[in-house]
Amino acid sequence: MNLKPWREIAVPHEDVRKGTFVQAEFAADISRVHDGSASDEYQQPELFFQRTFITEGMAALLTSVAKRLTHGAGDPVIQLQTAFGGGKTHTLLAVMHMVAGVPAAKLVGLPAILKAAHIDAVPKATVVVLDGINLSPSKPRKVQGHTLRTLWGELAWQLGGEAAYAEVAEADATGTSPGKVALGALLKAHSPCVILIDELVAYLRQFEEGKSYTGGTFDSNLSFIQALTEAMKAAPNAVSLVSLPESDTEGGSAHGIHTLRTLEHFFGRVQAIWKPVSTEESFEIVRRRLFSEIRDPDAANAVCDAFAKAYVEHADSLPGETQEARYRDRLRAAYPIHPEVFARLYEDWSSLPNFQRTRGVLKLMARVIHRLWQDNNQDALLLPGSLPLYDSEVATELTNYLGQGWDPVIEHDVDGEHSEPAELDAREPRFGAVQACRRAARCIFLGSAPGSVNQTARGVETNRVLLGCLQPGQQPHVYRDALGRLETRLTYLNKGNDRWWLDVRPNLRREMEERKRRFEAAEVTDEIRGALRRVMGSTTFNVHVFTPAADVPDDWSIRLVVLTPDQAWTRSGANPARDAAAAILRLRGEQPRMKQNRLLFLAADGDQVRHLRDTVRALLAWRSIEADAKELRMTLDNLQQRQVAQYKDKTAESVLRIVREAFKWLVAPSQVIDHHGKPSDIEWESFALNPAAPGLGKEIERVLRENELVISEWAPVHLHNLLTKWFWRDGVSDANAQDVWEKSCTYLYFPRLAGSSVMQATIAAGATSRDFFGLASDRNDDAYRGFSFGKSAAIFMDALLLIEPKAAAAYAARMQPAYAPTSVGGESMRGSAGVPGLTNSGAAITVGATSTAGGFPPRPRRYFATVELDPVRAAVEFSKIQNELIGLFTANPSSRVTIKVDIEVSDNHGFDETTVRAAKENGKTLGVKSSGFE
After folding, report:
1. So what's the pLDDT on residue 35?
2. Are strands 193-198 and 238-245 parallel, antiparallel or unpaired?
C-alpha cells in the first residue's frame, strides 16, 4: 500500500528537528515571563498563542477573566487544580498575555472567544505574579531601596510601586496580614488588575507552624490568603487565579498536605475550578508544540483511513474500540502520533508520581521525533512500536520515572543494539522485514513498565501489542509469532492470562526478594562495615567503624569515628548522627572524654540508608542462593547459575558504590569564643564528600586538608597568635610547649593539629626569628635554662618553654653583661647577636647539665610521691595516675620508674580465718614481696 510516511506530511518545529530544544522550555516559568527573561515562545504573546491550543477549559477561563475585567461579571477568584504537568502555569500565562494590551486580532484563537462572550476588547490590566517557587519566606527582596518581605508586600509593590507599598509597609515589616479592607482598597485603586498566584503550596509549606519568618508566620499568610479572597469580591475589575496541585504527592510532606487542604478550604467558598485538559485536547496541544505544519492534509487523512480499514479487516486480533467509527476521528486528531501512544502515556505513565501529564509527553515525544527524523523513519504513523528505545536519551527519558534496574532490561530484552529482539530480527528475515521482535518488545515495555512500579496492572494484552505494531499491509500473525519467540528467549519477559509484561526481576530475582527478609539487622550492619573498610583504603588517621564510644581511645591521635547507619545525618528535623557524635564526644563509656579535639565523624546520608540496607540484603540473598545451589539444596540450570553469579557480583559492586554515596557526610565539632570570652555551644559542621573520588580515605583527607579541619603544616605566626590569646596573658610571659599541644587536643576552639610533630616543626621554623617567641628548656625564678632567641635550636616538646617575644628580648638584653667574652686567638667568642652561648657562626655552645654558669641551679634527679586512694574507686583513680603522672616519666627512655604499692588494712573486730588464709594465698599468687598480719 502506497502511503506517505509521516515525515513527508508533518513537519516538526526546527528546534525539534535539529534537537536544539531545551527541556526547560517545555516548562512554563511565570516569573521569567513576568520579568521578561523567558524564551520567545513564552515571552511573546503572538508566538505564545500561535503554539497554544485553547482547550475548552482554557476558553471558559479566558472568558471569565475577560468578563470580570470588562463588566465585573466574572468569577473574582479562580482555582486551577490539575495533576502534575496538567497545564496550570501555561493557562496563567495565557491570561497574562491576554491582558498585556496586545490587540486580540493578533492572538490566535482569542477573537472567537471574545466574540462569543460579546466583548469587543479586553482592557489592559496590571498583572501581579506571586510565584511560590521564586519567593522565599526568609530572604526579603530589595527593590529600589525598599525591602519586600511578604506576599502582601510583593502584591502592593507590583500593583502600584512605592505609593501602593506604603499602604501595607507596616504590615509587611511586622509580618501581619493587612486585612481585607486594606487589600480591597488597594485592588480598587489599581484596577483593572490580575493577580496570578502560582505554586502557593510550595511557598507556604516552608513555614513551620508556630515559627516566625521574615515573610511572616504560617497563620499570618493563611490570614492574608483568606483576606485576599474576600477582598477580590469587593473589587469588580480585579480577578485572581491561583494554581494548586491536585495530588498529595505534590504537596510533599505532611505539613505540605495539610497546607493544601487548608487552601482548598479557603478557596472552596469563593472560587471557580478550572476544567482540566481532556485526552483529545492533549493531542492538539502536543501537535502544535512539536509540529509546525501538516503539509498535505489529504495525505494525512488517507493514512488515517488506511489504518481504520486495516483495523476492521483484522478485527479479531485488535481491541474492540478500533472497530468504532469514532476511532478514525481519534486517528485524525492525533496524527501523526498514533492514539495508542497517547493512551499508554496518559493512562499508564501519568499515574507515576513524577510524570507530568502534558510536559512529560512533550519532552518524550520531542526526543522521539528528533531521533526518528534523523534516522529517516518511514512509518506511516508514530506507533508504540516505533519508539526508538535504542536511543539512550529516549530510554533515559522514560526510565527516569521508573525504579532502578530498567537500563539492562532495555539493553538486553527490548531495543539495545545487541539485544535479543534485535538478534531475532536479524536472524529471521520475516521478522526483520518489519522489525517484528523489536516493535513487539517496545510495545510491551511502554504498556507494562509503569504497571510494574505501581503493582496494580500486570502487563498489556496481546491485542494491544498488535495494535501498537500493525501497519496497513502487514499481517498480525507475524507479530504473534514474534511474541512466541520472545517468550522463550527473553530474560525479563513474563506472560500470564494473555498479558505480557517486562520486569526488572527475572524469576531468580523473585527468589532473591523473598530471601532478603531472612537477614537480621546485625548481619546487614556487619556487611556494611566490611564494605566501608574496603572503600576506605589506607589513611593517615585512625578509623573506627561502628565502634562503641567506650572503645574509642581518648588519646593524642586523630581518630575518625564512623557512625552506624542508624545514626544517619539529616538536614532537617531530628539528626541522629549529631546526637550520637555528641554522646561519643562527651563520654568514653562512663568516663568523661578529655581529648575532644582529636575526634572527627563520618555519617551516612539519611535519605540513602534505606537503599543501602536494601542493596546489602540483596547481596546476602544472592550469596545464599549461590550457596544453596552449590550444596544442591536448590536446583538451577547452567544459565541460572551464571545469572546468580552475575547478579551477586553486580550487587556487590553496587554495595561498594552505594556505601560511597551514602557515607558522604564528614562531620567536625567546633566551638567559637563569644564576645565575653566564653566558648559557645558545640557547633557541628558537615562537609559533603565526592562519591566519585578514588578512595574514600583519600577523599576524606582532601576535605580535611582543604577545609583546615586537620592542620598538617602550621605557620609560626598562628602559633604566636594562639599563645598571645590564651597563654601569654595576666602577667605570664612563657608557656610550656607540651601544655600548649595537650590543650590543642582538648579544646574545640583550638586548631586541630595532625600531631605533636606539626607543632614541633612550627616551633623549629619560628625559632630562627625574633618575631614569634623565644625558647628555653626550663625556668628557675627569673632565670631561663637553655635560653635561645632568634636562632635555630633542637626542639624537645616535653622540656620546652615558649617565651613572649618582648620578654625574650628583654631577657636577652639583661643577661648580656653576665657573659664575659673569651678570646681564642685574639677573637671574641661572644655571639654575633650579643646573645650568650652563641658563636659568631650561630652554632650553639653545649653546656653540661650540672653547670651553674649564669647562676643556673643543678637539674633535679629524683621524683617521689605518695597518694592515698579510695578503696572503692582505686582502679579508676590509679588509671588516672598512670596516664597523667607516671606517663610523663615513662615517655623518657633515660628515666627509671619504680612503683611500690603500700596496703594497710585495719579491722577493730579482727579478721576471720578465711580472710587471713585467702589474703596470704592471693599475695603469693600476685608476687607480693612482704606482707603479714598483727
Report:
1. 86
2. parallel
Residues 230, 222: Cα–Cα separation, whole Å:
13
Q: What is the pLDDT of residue 829?
A: 36
528: Cβ–Cβ under 8 A, 6 or more apart, which residues?
565, 612, 613, 616, 655, 659
Q: Report CA torsion sign: 503, 507, 513, 514.
A: positive
Return d(Cα 383, Cα 32) in angstroms, integer: 36
Confidence at residue 712, expressed as pLDDT on a 0 to 100 scale = 92
DSSP letter, residue 278: P
N residues, the chain:
934
Distance CA 441, CA 237 (A): 57
What residue has cell string 478485527? Answer: 315
Report how far Cα 784 is from the mean position of its chain's Cα atoms: 58
Question: CA-CA distance, 84 to 537, in Å (whole number)?
Answer: 45
Q: What is the rounded distance in angstroms from the CA atom of residue 627 to the CA atom of residue 186?
A: 77
Q: How confident is the model at residue 846, as a pLDDT?
A: 31
Helix 436-454 with 476-489: angle, nearest 10 deg: 60
Judged by DSSP in three states, 883 sits in helix
Q: Whose CA is closest to 667, among 594, 613, 755, 748?
A: 748
Give the Cα separation of 165 and 162 in Å (integer): 5
Instruction: Give the C-alpha separation, 661 to 555, whole Å.
Output: 31
Q: Which residues pair with 803 in a beta bridge?
A: 734, 774
Going by their DSSP bridges, the two strands 591-592 and 238-245 should be labelled as unpaired
**Residue ranges in the chain modelled with pLDDT below 70:** 1, 22-28, 81-87, 246-252, 268-279, 452-457, 505-507, 509-510, 637, 639, 817-859, 872-873, 876, 883, 887-888, 890-895
Cα gap 95→239, rounded to integer Å: 11
Give the integer Cα–Cα distance in Å for 439 and 895. 87
Phi-psi region of 284 (alpha: psi -120 to 50; beta: other; left: phi over 0): alpha
d(CA 428, CA 442): 18
Neighbours of 383 (CB within 10 A): 23
The three-state secondary structure class of 244 is strand
Per-residue confidence (pLDDT) for residue 378, from 0 to 100: 93
Beta bridge partners of 10: 294
First and final C-alpha spacing in the chain: 124
- H or E element at residue 501: strand 499-502
Annotate 909-929 with three-state secondary structure: CCCCHHHHHHHHHHHHHHCCC
| CA atoms of 786 and 802, how far apart (whole Å) | 12
* DSSP 8-state symbol, 87: S
For 546, 560, 605, 608, the CA distances from 530, given in Å and listed in that order, are 11, 16, 18, 18
d(Cα 162, Cα 169) in Å, to the nearest integer?
A: 10
pLDDT of amino acid 780: 85
Which whole-number Å values give the CA distances from 79 to 151, 181, 186, 276, 279, in the listed order?
A: 18, 22, 22, 11, 21
- The Cα–Cα gap between 56 and 280 comes to 11
> In the 8-state DSSP scheme, what is residue 560?
E
Tell the residue number behind the cell numbers 535479543, with chain if given. 420
What pairing do the DSSP bridges indicate for beta strands 77-82 and 271-273?
parallel
pLDDT at 268: 65
Is residue 743 a contact partner of residue 754, using CB atoms and an 8 Å limit? no
Residue 916: all three cell numbers together: 587471713
Contact, 121 vs 145, CB < 8 A? Answer: no
What CA–CA distance (Å, rounded) separates 159 from 71?
Answer: 20
Q: How many CB atoms lie within 10 A of CB 550?
A: 11
pLDDT tens sequence across 394-445: 999 888 888 888 998 999 899 988 899 999 999 999 999 999 999 999 999 9
Measure the CA angle with vertex 928, ends 922 and 931; round to 5°.
90
